[in-house]
Amino acid sequence: MKIALLLNPDHEQAQFASQIGIQHAIIGGPNSPNGYLEYDTLQQAQEVFAAHGIEISAVENVPVHFYDKVMAGLPGRDEQIDNYCTTIHNLSRAGIHILGYHWMLLGGITSDYVRGRGGARERHFDWEAANRSRIDALEWRGPDGVIHVPDQEISTEQMWDNVAYFLQRVLPVAESCGVKLAAHPDDAPIPSFMGVARILGSLEGLQRLLDTVPSPSNGLDFCQGTIAEMTGVNVVDAIYRFGKQHKIFFAHYRAVQGQVPDFTEVFMDEGGNDMYAAMKAYKDVGFTGPMRADHSPAVIGDNRQAHRGFAFEIGYMKGMAQAVDALSAQTH
Amino acid sequence: MELALTLNCWNDEDLVFAQQFGVNHILAQPILPAPGVQRWDERALAALRNRVEQAGLQLVGFDGLPCPLDRSVRGETGRDDEIAVASQFITAAGAAGIPLITYGWALSQHTPSSRMPVGRGQSHVNRVAAPIADPMRATQTGWESYTYFLARVIPVAERANVRLACQPNSPFKPGLLNSTAALQQLLDTAPSHCHGLDLQHGALTHMPAADLLQAIQHFVKQGRVFCAQAQHIDVRTEGIAEGFLDERSTTGPAMLDVLQAYRAAGYNGDLRPAPPPGVTGDTEWGHKGHAFHAGYLKSLLQVARRLPEAMAQ
User: Closest residue of B to A301, CA-based?
Assistant: First the structure.
């Protein structure tokens, strides 16, 4: 697998990443007034990273307002889908072959931040508290900073219709361009929020997504943390389940304590999940795609890019990957 | 086997840093002065220990003596003054309940290496152009002055109940103790339960992997390894350079094999990372670099601890 970091195309960030041994970058989709990712912007980003021996392995997501009407099933979605196909073409031209997408109209949901180990600031979710929160209290609003609240409720079946409509139109283009679409599970994984269904908050939902439009380009952005948050789910079993289908295109490595209705993101070593068994599972299923460090608890004296937090996480991941390799070398 | 970090314990933020990354064992840098503390007496040392414990951490020792040993290493006049200062410090540490002090038998001003941006991603690493021919190396003079030092300092350590842990010499700190034979000679010269090794096994990375693992086991089994340090030293024809711990050299063992060697031989002391290469925008101490190394050793130690369970999976 390729250990990766979410990075901005910036020489200083790229140099830091290369120093801690990163050769694979994930970028957020750069905004554009045209409603699709521009080839020139992607190509320039490739060049910045290439100067530091790094290649872009995936785009995490496009700005939410590039596809909000598609998610909500509103008029104008066909134009957005056309633009999405342009994005896929441009990615392919720029040599990027994985496009992640978050099917979360309301974005990620956090109820608050709590003080964890040594007072580090950790993301926390409490379902009851989240339900009491005001819409403008949503912490993460997507890359464009806009809160996308439709003026009507969206049922689960409507949401499935909307995602099927999307996949049926974009997957043939993705296949012909050699681009894989990787769906991120809904974080927090709850079935609906503020009247808007969240269909990718369970393993059944993820499986249904894959089965709805079978395609070699239809797969998952396997956010290990989100899946570990799902009630009753064993995340290591889930890696085997989807990995054996070769549907993990891209992974996020993260540890969580607790599950819905109450969980907290913790440091990778804090014992929230069996991180060794998880790393071994990715290796066992032959996963070779990018695996990025996910959000880390916020530590003292860190910069805006959380270099200390990410340095710890990347070090942890590298050590774990080497441990898995060393043990498999010993047993063979 | 516990992960430890060497840091400036007078700095509150660094204690929090260690706590947040889950590193509970601390080695103190011999740095003076703190506000209101002018010398290393028992009171200052007790205050330092107290600060670390207040932060919920354990002060396992001092990483280095706060005084030079140049005259002692050279066997020159004035070495008795150095020995008196070192002895005073050891006695005060014992009285303050600090059980371990590491030290290097090397000249403080002897720096054959330069810090250059030649590491991974142009990180700044210590580098020497070629192996150093050291004047002290394996000469009888060298051992004589070392024996003189040990004969005076070890009884002090025994009375104070402080364990002294000597570091191997490396291309970056050349000296007598540059082979496993020399390290064994040292242990045999001073067979005290208060004198052993700070096994900075990076200094031995010129050895083939199997020999290095065997050497670790050899020293640990004698019960004379008091402290350990992981360091990556890359030996190439064009020079010798430090690097990040995850940069395994082609001839070196996997880090997990190293940790297993320590554990299999019964080592239950601390392991700390070497000072990291300098990365972009980091502090002088290297908070980003230390975070990277701490994370790296954390996961490997977690796996090593659950062996052989992990192997059975």
Answer: B13
- Record the tokens describing residue B281, joined without a space: 């925008």
Q: Which residues of A56-92 are buried (b: 16+ CB within 10 A; e: fewer)?
A: bbbbbbbbbbbbbbbbbbeeebeebbebbbbbbbbbb
Taking an 8 Å cut-off on Cβ atoms, the answer to whether B299 and A319 are in contact is yes
Tell the CATH topology of A2-331: TIM Barrel (3.20.20)
How far is Cα B251 from Cα B241, in angstroms, rounded to an integer?
15
Count of the separate structural domains present in chain B: 1
The encoded tokens of residue A292 equal 């990025």
Neighboring chain A residues of B232 at a CB cutoff of 8 Å? none
Condensed to tens digits (0 to 9), the pLDDT of residues B30-73 reads 887 666 667 889 999 999 999 999 999 999 999 999 999 999 99
Q: Which of residues 182-221 of B touch A (CB under 8 A)?
A: none
Contacts of B18 in chain A (CB under 8 A): 118
* Buried-exposed string B214-246: b where 16+ CB fall within 10 A, e elsewhere: ebbbbbbeeebbbbbbbbbbbeeeebbbbbbbb
Instruction: Please write the tens of the pLDDT for every residue from A197-231.
Output: 999 999 999 999 999 999 999 999 999 999 999 99
B299/A117 CB distance under 8 A: no
Domain around B65: 2-312
